[in-house]
Specification:
The complex is a heterodimer. Chain A is mainly α. Chain A has helices at 2-10, 24-62, 80-87, 91-121, 127-139, 142-153, 159-166, 180-208, 212-220, 225-236, 238-253, 257-262, 274-284, 288-313. The longest helix of chain A has 39 residues, at 24-62. Classes of the chains: A mainly alpha, B mainly alpha.
């Protein structure tokens, strides 16, 4: 992921030229080092407070009975909250739905994003404007993209309905957000519309660093456009693809806003994802033990996902 | 002779293929533009409809006739000004503190002999991947104890998880590119490190600071997750939370009114993108590719 690529580059800043000297320079180095820690401190402390501390607190809560609106002892409950994950309805279903959504949407978004990146990498008049235009869906709040697609899929005022009706296609005059698969379709479209541009922009940056000579050489060797794309572009694009894949997979795996706004997890529980389930446990049920157990699962699964990518796809070093 | 005979024919045969390709390229560009922008047209169109027209359904691609009543109503009836102000305050404050913190951290990591600098930077970047919902529970408990629930300012603390990783990373890279001579000259003249950073380095790094600020503002402005978790009453809603609430408080959803609010909340972000497209792209990709 980003930081594993980053770490080697961070090193050159660390060794100081004064290290070789003695006496006064060491005192200077020590003073500079202390200043360095002081300057890093605010950022590190704030980030520890919002990430490491919740992680530990969730871990603690997940072994305790912490339900706020239930008076009584918030005592140790052993593995009960974790057992609940697998016995109570909700968690396993959400896990399957979340993984399914992640796989489908990330695969689709990567393919379309790659196509889009190749397109906007070509030279044509107005390219800057097109790049700005596709950046807007990425930059708007998720609330905007979710509400916008809710409007688009609305049976009365929506464009989707109007278009399908005009074309006499099936799918008009239905309430998209009341069926399970039609709801997922709407969520998928809203998510892809917002996130394909992000992938395209990351991949475009990757494409721009590939020197033209590479293609030149491939053409001279008689490679077709497809061959040079497969054999040259894709391998050289691997680092950018990895970054886009990790970012998007983790974001899709943690999907919450779109679900909350478009479907509220419904109809029934058919669009509930892990993050949505965790929100309900915390904010609706005030069950911080069970919610903590889900949160721990979120963190562990995120780490597993990131780990798999880095292991499988990391460019060999 | 044959070579001469062939030459004039070659372009004639190639020309149509080139035209074909160009046409296909432009068609693809048009499709992309349509998919990216048409939905915006549709919410603008919906926001310009009267409630009566809205209730009748869609009869054409153009709005029946233009009315700005929804934009008036969203402020007059729904008091959308307050959530907008709340969002502006929180986003600007987050941006400001982010720039201060990440300038300090970025500078230290780029220039000072901080032991374990790589690990510290790794942690800062990793924090950006932490699941937001895993933050919500414990921080809710802490905020409750401090009386922070339903107050906008404590949101700033959690928004740092969006902004600090990318801003620190960007500024660290930016500072690393600035020649050391500049600040060394200032320090020879008696300035301390911090004075040199403030008076010499930051002014040179303005483009980088600007990029980090724009991205921070967008990321804070766009939050919904933390607002919906920690804010409970409408005077304290941020703009995204208010919009979602309009959709949930009515039995029948009037998208014409909601979309007026959606259009308003989109404007600052769209403006930033159009003004600083290059900077945002550089920031995003530098944050992801280096």
């Amino acid at each position: 992921m980003a930081q594993t690529v980053a770490v080697p580059r961070a090193e050159p800043g660390t060794p100081s030229p004064q290290e070789g000297g003695r006496g006064r320079t060491t005192a200077l180095v020590r003073r500079e080092r202390r200043l360095g820690y002081l300057m890093v401190a605010p950022t590190v402390i704030v980030l520890l407070f919002v990430t490491a501390f919740p992680l530990v607190y969730n871990f603690w809560n997940s072994f305790h009975n912490v339900i706020l609106n239930q008076p009584g002892p918030h005592g140790f409950s052993g593995l009960k909250n974790y057992a609940d994950l697998f016995t109570q309805q909700g968690f396993l279903g959400s896990l399957v739905r979340t993984l399914g959504f992640t796989a489908v949407s990330v695969a689709f978004e990567m393919v379309v994003g790659l196509g889009l990146a190749v397109l906007i990498n070509k030279a044509f008049p107005g390219r800057g404007l097109v790049r700005a235009a596709i950046l807007v869906p990425w930059a708007v709040p998720t609330v905007v993209s979710a509400m916008l697609w809710k409007t688009m899929f609305d049976p009365r005022s929506g464009f989707v309905d109007y278009l399908l009706g005009q074309l006499h296609l099936p799918g008009s005059n239905i309430s998209w957000l009341t069926g399970q698969w039609t709801s997922w379709t709407a969520v998928f479209v809203a998510d892809a519309w917002k996130n394909v541009p992000f992938i395209a922009i990351i991949l475009l940056a990757g494409l721009q660093v590939i020197p033209d000579e590479v293609y030149e050489a491939a053409r001279i060797d008689g490679a077709s456009a497809w061959q040079s794309f497969r054999r040259m572009t894709l391998p050289l694009l691997k680092p950018a693809l990895l970054v886009a894949l990790v970012f998007r997979t983790l974001q899709a795996f943690l999907i919450f806003d779109v679900i909350y706004i478009m479907t509220g997890g419904g109809p029934g529980t058919s669009t509930e994802t892990l993050s949505f389930l965790d929100y309900q446990a915390f904010i609706n049920q005030f069950n911080f033990g069970y919610g903590g157990a889900i949160a721990i699962m979120l963190v562990v699964l995120s780490l597993i996902i990131a780990g798999i990518y880095v292991k499988v796809l990391r460019p060999s070093t | 002779m044959t070579a001469v005979a062939v030459r004039p024919r070659a372009p004639a045969r190639r020309w149509p293929r080139l035209v074909w390709r160009q046409a296909l390229l432009y068609l693809a560009v048009l499709v992309v533009l349509g998919v990216a922008l048409f939905p915006f047209y549709w919410i603008v169109r919906t926001s310009l409809e009267t409630t009566a027209e809205f209730s009748q359904g869609v009869s054409s691609l153009l709005p029946p006739h233009l009315t700005f009543q929804n934009f008036v109503n969203v402020f007059k009836q729904e008091h959308f000004g307050r959530p907008l102000l709340n969002s502006a305050i929180v986003s600007l404050a987050t941006t400001f503190v982010t720039i201060v913190f990440s300038s300090l951290a970025g500078y230290a990591l780029a220039r000072l002999p901080v032991r374990g600098g790589g690990a510290i930077l790794g942690f800062i970047l990793l924090a950006g991947f932490f699941p937001p919902l895993a933050m919500v529970g414990p921080l809710f408990l802490v905020y409750r104890d401090f009386g922070f629930i339903d107050s906008i300012y404590p949101l700033i603390i959690v928004y740092f998880v969006y902004t600090l990783p990318i801003a620190t990373w960007l500024l660290k890279n930016f500072f690393a590119q600035i020649p050391k001579d500049l600040e060394e000259a200032a320090m020879v003249d008696g300035a301390t490190r911090l004075q040199a950073l403030w008076r010499v380095v930051i002014p040179v790094a303005v483009p980088g600071v600007f990029t980090a600020a724009i991205l921070s503002f967008i990321l804070a402005w766009n939050d919904f997750t933390f607002a919906v978790s920690f804010i409970t009453s409408s005077p304290h809603f941020t703009a995204p939370l208010a919009i979602v609430n309009y959709g949930q408080s009515q039995f029948q959803i009037f998208y014409n009114l909601i979309d007026a609010a959606v259009v308003i909340v989109t404007l600052p972000v769209a403006g930033l993108v159009l003004l600083a497209q290059r900077r945002i792209v550089t920031g995003l990709t530098a944050g992801a590719l280096k």
